[in-house]
Specification:
Layout lengths: L7 H15 L2 H12 L3 H10 L11 H13 L2 E5 L3 H13 L3 E5 L24 H12 L4 E5 L16 E4 L4 H14 L3 E7 L2 E7 L5 H6 L7 H4 L4 H18 L8 E6 L4 E6 L1
Helix pairs in contact: 1-2, 1-3, 2-3, 3-4, 5-6, 5-10
Length: about 280
């Protein structure tokens, strides 16, 4: 988790005074951002530390709580792959108020993406996925920082992972997934893995050293999505479970276990498979 600030106590007291003066948390946060040059995610986290939830997170409160919201605002995650799964994952993370989201994708939107990829529309065809995603993030939550990398994950240097608490594997090919597993193990960063194909999907938390993906995929080079394709509902469903798993992990509510959760949306079946 990213450190909040060296003068947290002073800024918290200042924010408290601003709330009392302005009578509204949002105005007080904006004042602190403007007067003290504090990143908005930090100002919001200070408010949460005072048990004051900004309005945009009020509906999160009963589930996540003020302290949990503070932790999310101070968290940094990476989403690798900004396609069918990745766009849905980013959308939910940003609405949850995860403070820094790193997005990795080397591609541009194409017409074949229109059936399922949340940020693909007639205006975004031909545009870089990272650029479209960055605009979307800014339009939803201006407190969240989006750091784009127009790159294949295999080409990322270790500096890209600095202070990352959690990686979301939203890739659509097996070799880069296994590369990401190796990076997570080497840098001691857990992964939330998601994969989809047709009516089917799977989710797993890959703990460093577990070799979960190596066990699942073995020597396979292609997944079932190459044959079955992907309708729009499967990535939306699986992405929701991925974000749920990720939020639990960031908040310390996730047990360390090696389980693959498999969903069959055709027959409405769900299995937890221990590996």
């Amino acid at each position: 988790m990213v450190k909040i600030t060296d003068n947290e106590e002073y800024l918290s007291q200042l924010l408290k005074q601003l709330v009392e003066t302005t009578g509204e948390a949002e105005k007080a946060i904006e004042r602190l951002v403007a007067d003290r040059d504090v990143p908005k995610r930090i100002a919001e986290s200070l408010a949460c530390g005072l048990n004051i939830l900004p309005k945009r997170y009020e509906a999160n409160g009963g589930t996540i709580g003020s302290e949990g919201q503070k932790y999310l605002l101070l968290s940094k995650v990476m989403v690798v792959g900004l396609g069918g799964l990745g766009c849905q994952v980013v959308e939910q993370l940003v609405r949850c108020g995860v403070g820094i989201v790193v997005g990795v994708d080397a591609d541009k939107f194409e017409e074949t993406n229109l059936n399922r990829q949340l940020y693909a529309d007639l205006n975004s065809i031909g545009q870089k996925k990272t650029e479209v995603t960055q605009r979307r993030v800014a339009a939803i939550n201006d407190a969240v920082e989006f750091h784009p990398f127009v790159s294949r994950v295999e080409d990322l240097e270790d500096g890209a992972y600095q202070e990352v608490d959690l990686i979301f594997d939203c890739l659509d090919a097996i070799p880069p997934r296994l590369h990401l597993e190796e990076v997570g193990e080497r840098l001691d960063i857990p992964l939330v893995h998601g994969a989809i194909g047709g009516w089917y999907g799977q989710v797993a938390t890959v703990w460093p050293g577990s070799k979960m993906l190596s066990t699942v995929y073995g020597t396979k080079q292609e997944g079932i999505e190459k044959t079955l394709g992907n309708p729009p509902f499967t990535p939306a469903f699986i992405a929701a479970f991925m974000v749920s798993e990720g939020i639990k992990l960031l908040l310390g509510k996730k047990e360390k276990e090696n389980k693959l959760m498999f969903a069959d949306l055709l027959n409405n079946q769900w299995q937890n498979i221990s590996l």
